[in-house]
Each structure stands twice: as C-alpha cells, then as structure tokens.
Amino acid sequence: MTAPSSQHPRAAEPAVAGQAEEDLRALFGESIAVFASLAGPAHLVETANPAFLATIGGQRARTGVPLVESAGQGFVALLDEVYRTGESATVRDVRVVLDSGPHAREAFFDLTYEPRRDVEGGVVGVQVIGVETTQVKHAQQLMTEHRALLEQIARQAPLTEVLDGMARCIENLTPQEVLVSVLLADGAHLRHGAAPSLPDFYNQAIDGIATGEGIGSCGTAAHRREPVIVTDIATDPFWADFRDLADRAGLAACWSTPILARDGSLLGTFAMYHRVPRVPQDFDLALARVFAGTAALAIERHHSEQARRDAETRAEAARDELAKSIHTERELRAEAEQRATAAAELATRMRAAAAAQAAAPHPEHCRLGGADGCTAPAELKVADSWGDAAWGCQAHAAEAIIHVRSAFIASEELGGLNAYINRRPG
C-alpha cells in the first residue's frame, strides 16, 4: 500500500528546526530500560515493566505466562544458563527481533541476569535488567559513515563515487536487508545515479523513467516533491506498470524520498527497496531524510563544480578564439603591407619602364621585370592614372594590375581589357 501523503510534510517547503530535531530524536533517541522478574525453569513472567513487555517480550508476553522468544535469538538460553548455574551474567549487544512480518525490526540490548533465591539460597527464578542500545549502535555507525560522506563531498570526489558510497553505507546501517537506489533529475525524467545492489536489468529498465503521479514510488515522489511509501508493491496501484519488473528483481516494498535543492527544485530521488513487504519505522524515515539531504549537498556541489568547469572551458575557448583572431589580423596586416610594398615597387617599375621606352613605343621584351629584367615578349600595355604606361609580358602585366590599384590595360590595338580577360592560357 502507499502511505497517505498527509503522513509526511510537504518536502518542497523549507525545512524547519522542528523536523530536524525530530529526526535527531529518531536517530539518537533515549535508550529504553527494561525490567522483568521471572520465576521457575519455564521463566514465568511475574512482574515486568511495559518496556520489557513491548520489546523483549513481544506480543505474546504478559504476566502469569512463561516467556517465549522467537527461534534462534538466544535470550531464553541465557536465562536457562543463569537459572541452572545460579551465577550472574552480563551480556552486551544481545540481538532481539521485535514483532514479525512487515513490522519486524532488529534491536540490541545490554542485559544483566541476576539469579533470584529463596531463603535457603536456592535459585527460584531470574531477574533481568537491561538497556536497549539499538539507537546508540545505529547512531555511532551513522555518525562515522555520514562524516566519511561529508569528507568525500568536501574533497570533491566524483558524484558517482559519493552516491555509490552513500548507498552502500545505508545498506550496511539498516538491520534488515535493504537495497538503495539514487536517481538523478533530468528534466521530466529520472536517470540512474547509484544502485550497487539492484540487478543491472532493473537499473537499465528504470533509467530514464518519467516523473508523474502514479509512476512507481520514485516517479510519484519526484512529481509530488514529498516521500512516497509503498509497503507492498504487489498490491499498490502506483506499481501497476512495473510490478512484473519488480517481481523479477525480487522487490516487495519501495520507500522513495525526493532529493531537493535549497530552492526546492528537484535534484533526484532516494529509494529504499525491501525483499518483503515492510512498513517503515521512525528510524527508517529519519535515515531517509538525513541521507536525502546529504545527497542533495553532493549533487548541488557537483552541479556547481560542473558549472565552474563549463565556465572555465568557455573562457578558455574565448581566449583561443581571441588569440586566433589576433594571429589572423597580424597575418592580414603583414599581407597588406607586402602588397603595398609590391604595389610601390611595381609602380616604380612602370615609371621607369615608361621613361625607358619613350624612344621605342612598343619594345620587343617585357619592361616590367624590374632589376632582374624579363626576356618574355612584351604583349600588353599597362597604364596607371598618372599617365605612366609600360609594355610587359602577360605575367608581369597581371602582377601590375593586381597590386597597383590604378593600373589598367591600355593596349587597345591588342583588344584592350576584353582581349586580356578572354585570352587563352599559353
């Protein structure tokens, strides 16, 4: 089933101090003291405080009946030992499974067993005094793992490394088997971020899933911007389109929390999957909120770093383009200067040739070859706007026309400019 949204605050609203304090109480709450006085080898419960009956005793425990535990927990075996030997015993981190089915959870206790004796010194029962240490153990692990994640973020470790480490951390922190998935927002879709324990075919199938009402736990959580708790995938309508996929992956429950930026925009989703139908405890919900916040920090830091690198890349590209422009400008300027020099030199040749050919109006050889001279036939007459004219070969005449702005073909008897343009290659 899907938990009603009214059970969770609107995630898009700014976090308030009260919620943070509530999460801390859930993660680091006060330990529970338990007490019971048991009689006889069957450990009949004579007296017990409510905490004992609600935790170690479970639903079947009540005064006037023997204490019964779930198979394999070892709690009764220790009672048997103390009752048999008459020696006190203190044990730490005794593991007890509380409740059953989807409400089952693992708990740890530090317990002291004291034999109860009659007036003759014989053992008639056992007195149990203990303190639950579950939250202490979880808190210590949480602080260590959370600090390591923050250090990764501070040293700008790759986002995939941070998210993968976070997923594995939570999978190790939770008593029951849990599989963590982080999806990253990409417009109106969610992309794979990290899911180290989910099957590859499942990760590939949900990579790119749309966000929207009723699209699984994560698609709906991203759309609503609030946690979506599906305790039984097999019956929940949100999973109608993904039920077969979840069954192939062996998934029975999915609790999804949106990952939100400081401005309330969607960064992704953080999901906790279970192999059996499960209802979350306060610790589970607080853990999800804490690590969704940590994921938000990592993703925002990644986006900021990516934006900085993109800006640096654009700036470097702009600098390269500027350098190319300056280089091109210098080349063009140098080419213009060369052309100006060539034009001046050709103009000088034309004047010199004009003066030299005054006695021979149509010389036999090219007069535009400059100091090196040219023995090619003088085929074209070139003139400029100052009235200077000279005969030259086709190559030198073309060079003069190209480089001397005012030069033109003046030999009309040879067809003038039109003949030059339509000439055949030699």
Structural overview:
- The chain is of the alpha+beta class and 426 residues long.
- It has three domains: 5-13 and 137-280, GAF domain (Beta-Lactamase, 2-Layer Sandwich), CATH 3.30.450.40; 32-132, PAS domain (Beta-Lactamase, 2-Layer Sandwich); 338-421, no CATH class.
- The chain is built from eleven helices and 14 strands.
- It has helices at residues 17-28, 50-54, 75-85, 134-154, 159-173, 200-206, 216-224, 243-249, 282-356, 394-403, 416-421; strands at 33-39, 44-48, 89-98, 105-117, 123-132, 179-186, 189-194, 209-210, 228-230, 253-260, 266-274, 380-383, 389-392, 408-409.
- Strands 8-7-6-11-10-9 form a six-stranded antiparallel β-sheet, sandwiched between helices.
- Helix 1 (17-28) crosses helix 9 (282-356), helix 5 packs antiparallel against helix 9 and helix 9 crosses helix 10 (394-403).
- The longest helix has 75 residues, at 282-356.
- It is rod-shaped and about 155 Å long.
- It starts with 16 loop residues before the first helix and ends in a 5-residue tail after the last helix.
- The model is unreliable at 4-17 and 414-418 (pLDDT under 50).
